[in-house]
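Just scan this pair:

***
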Amino acid sequence: TAFGGSLGAALVLAGWGYLWYVLERSGVEGWVVVQESTTSSLQPVTRDFEASCAAPAASQVELFVKTLRRWGRARITLEAVVGDPAAPAARLRGTYVGFARGTTSGGGG
């Protein structure tokens, strides 16, 4: 079974991985952190599971990348689920922050 922290970690990682992919695809080098998140456990998880992050509207992603390039920092809200998106076992809504390499708040480098 999976619950609490293990589901939360998988969900946070799904969002982080999606945003890392966005940075790589856009050619921006930097870091991604989760600023805050809310996780809801909706059904028992009693077998192997996958967590996935839904891509937000293209306009939101474009604004995130544009802001990151211009200011070195950008924020976006992402949603991730465990299980079927139509009837998830767990759901996360999180605010993620990207830092472009070379900014003082990005964790070094």
Remarks:
- The chain has a mean pLDDT of 91.
- The beta strands are 30-41, 51-54, 73-82, 90-100.
- The radius of gyration is 15 Å.
- The longest helix spans residues 4-26.
